[in-house]
Amino acid sequence: MGRAPCCDKATVKKGPWSPEEDSMLKNYIEEHGTGGNWIALPHKIGLKRCGKSCRLRWLNYLRPNIKHGDFTPEEDSIICSLYISIGSRWSIIAAQLPGRTDNDVKNYWNTKLKKRLLGRRKDGQHRRSQSAAAADELPDGDSTNDAGGERPLSASAMERIQLYMQLQNPLPAVQHHNPALPWQQNTAAQSNDSFNSNTTSTSMNVTVAEHGQSSSQLSDHTLTGRQLESAAAMASPSSGDNSNVVTIEAELQELLYGEGSQMRGGAVDGGVLQVDVDWWSYDQGKQSPVNSWDFTTTETTSVFQDYTSVYDI
DNA sequence: AACAGGCACAACCGCAAACCC
DNA sequence: TGGGTTTGCGGTTGTGCCTGT
Fold first, then answer.
1. 3-state DSSP: chain A helix, strand, coil percent, rounded to 5?
2. Domains of chain A, residue spans
3. Percent of chain A residues topping a pLDDT of 90
4. A230 or A111, which is more confident?
5. End-to-end CA distance of chain A, in Å?
6. Å from the A210 CA to the B3 C1'
7. Phi and psi dihedrals of A181, rounded to 5?
8. Footprint of strand B, using CB within 7 A?
9. How much is the pLDDT for A63?
C-alpha cells in the first residue's frame, strides 16, 4: 500500500530555514559528518526537519565553496551546450560547474537563460494546433495517444528543438564523444580510440556542422520531409564530414549576448568547446524520451513536424 | 503611497535508482 | 533474491522582492 513517508509530516517543520537551524546543521555536519544517514540526522541534531530537507539545505546552501548568482559567460555556454545535448540533467550539468548546484543551474536556466535564448519565439503560442492545445487539457491518464503512437511534447523537448533551430538551420549535427548518448551507441565500438574506458574522465566535444546560415536567418523555414530525413542522417556520427565544423560557442554567444558579441574567455580549444565530463561514472543506461534524443527515430521526426506547426517555421 | 504583476530563488514533492539486510 | 529503506534527481510550488502603473 504505497511507500512509507520519509518523515512524520505532522511534526516536521517546513518552509524557509532560520539562521539557527542553518548553524545547527552546519556545525553538526562539519564536526561529525552526515553519518551516512540523512533521515536520522535531524533527530541527532534536534532539528524538526525532514532528512531530505536537511540534505537539500546542506547541498544547496550550507556546503563549503558554494557559489551563488553571477553566472559567467563561460558557465552560460556550458549550460546551454549541455542542455542541448543531454537535456535537463541538471546534476550532470552542475557537475561541470564547480561550486554550482543542480538547483542553482536549474533555476538559472528556467528564469534567465531559457528566456534569453528562446525569447525570440514567435507569437506562435496562440497558433498552436488544436490537437496540441487539446492534448494540454487532457487529464494525465489521457495524455498519450496510444493508437497513433503520438505523445505530447514536453516543454524540455520543445525548448531543445527550438534551441537547435535557432543555432543552426537546417538541423545541426551535434556530436558528442560520449558513448552514453543514444546516437553514439552505434559507433561506440568504432570509436574506442576516443573513449578510453581505463580513464575516469574524458572530454566531450560539442560541435555544430556549418551550413552557412547565421542564426538570424533561422526563423522562417519550412522543413520538408527530405530535410527531416537529412537532419536525421546528419545527426548520425557516421555522416562523417567534419571539415566545416564550427564551434557552437559562437552561435551561443550570439544568442546570449547579441550579434557580433565576442567570446569573453572560455574553454575553447581548437575551435571546439571542451567540456570535461565524467562520463564513466555517469549512468549510461538512463534514458528517457524527454531527456535523450535520438535523431534517427520516427518519433523525433514527428516531434520536429509538430514543432514546425507549433512555431510556424 | 498603494497595488498588481512579474521575477528570482529557496524549498518541497514524488518518483526511481541504489543500497542494505 | 526480495523487500524495505535511503538517496538522488527533476519538476513544481511558495514566497519575498522589485518594478511599473
1. 45, 5, 45
2. 19-62, 123-310
3. 0
4. A111
5. 49
6. 52
7. -80, 140
8. A 9, 13-17, 49-50, 52-53, 56-57, 60-61, 68-69, 103-104, 106-108, 111-112, 115, 283, 286
9. 87
